[in-house]
Structures are given as structure tokens and as C-alpha cells.
Amino acid sequence: MSNADKTSTWQTYKKIIEDGLWHNNQALVALLGLCPLLAVTNNTVNGLGLGLATMAVVIISNVLVSLIRDYVSSEIRIPVFIAIIAAAVTVIDLMMEAYLNTLHGILGIFIPLIVTNCAILGRAEAFASRNPVNHALIDGFFVGLGFALVLIVLGALRELIGNGTLFDQMHLLLGDMAAGWTLTLPDFYQPVLLAILPPGAFIGLGLLIAIKNAIEIKKREKQTNQLGIQVQTEPTLNQTVKQ
What we know:
Elements: H1 3-23, H2 34-40, H3 44-68, H4 77-99, H5 101-107, H6 118-126, H7 133-163, E1 165-166, H8 171-174, E2 183-184, H9 198-242
């Protein structure tokens, strides 16, 4: 492979990664899959558990859809994609029930409801069905990771403000090694109950979206200023050359 091909491949992977994590984040930009995101993120362990489950489903479905994309006609592709997603969710659901039974009971119906997550079907239709397996795998991993990170951050934020703790009950997911991970704020802190109630989920998500938008605005302003400086300096350079 030539250096030009390697550069082109890296640029493709870089764009897929940036889109999945930031520019096209399914929770902060596309605003898809908000039902489980808002419902179960009252603490960190719930967000992490559902985030990992969703991430696994996105990866599996993306890879399988990409593998069969040349063998499924356009008329039946959506039912086939949904069947693949449902099969992946069933496997993840049964594995969590077997090995993470308590957490499975807490997350409840929201694990099977991953089937209806528009973000997963959207990636299968918009990307995996039109790209090779290696691209679909990278896309599935980073789209799932981007969605999971929002779940984790929102869960941690709500738990910290609403309960005054962080990483509480993490042993439900990671076992005995995480039994002592709980961090507790000083006694003088008074938890804000609103944070762990349903309105707190909307407020927290709105705050995360606002932070992302503010970062994007700052970045665009910086790029605009840099472009303006370049435009102003170019005539000066040209005049210097002529002189």
C-alpha cells in the first residue's frame, strides 16, 4: 500500500471516529435513543451497563449487516436489519441475565427495548449497508462508544448531584473488585433530589448539549479568526515580493 493510500485510509477512519464520538453523536446531535438514555441514567452503573449493552449491539448489527449487504434486496432490507438487531439484543439480554442478574433486573425492560433504538437501525441503514466490514466495525464501535459515554457522563452527573456519591453499586457490573469504588461527597453537601428524578434527566442532557454546542461555537470562531489573519497577511506578503 502506497503512502497516499495509507493517508487516505487513515483520513477515512479518522472521519468515522470523529463522527461517531462528536460530530454525529447519536445522543447529542442526532438526538436518537433518548428514551433509555433519560430513563436509566440516575446513576453511573446503570448508564455504564446500558451503554456497554447498546455498544455491543451496534457493533454486532453493523458487522452482520455489512456482511450480508450484497445478498439482501432493498425491498426487505429493513425487516432483515431489525431481525439482526433483535437477535443481537436477545443474546446480550440473556448474557446479562445469566452473569449480571441484579443489574439486569434494575435495567429491566430497557435492555429488550434496545431493539427499537433508532440510532442502531439508523447506522445499519445509513452506513453499514453501504460500506465494507472494516468500516462498519469501526463505525459501530465509535458510534456505540459515543452513545455510551453520554450515558455514563449523564449518569455520573445525576448521581453526584442527586445522591452525593459516585460509582455507587459499581460491583453490580464489575464484581467484587469494584466494591470499594464508591466516592462520597462531604457531609455538608445536601443532595438535590431533582437531579435523579425524570426532570433532572432532561436538564442534564440539555446541559451536555449546551456544552457541546458552546465548544463547537468556540472552535468555529477560532477557525474564523485564523482565516481572517491569513487573509490580512497575504496582501502584505505579495506587496513585499513586488517591492
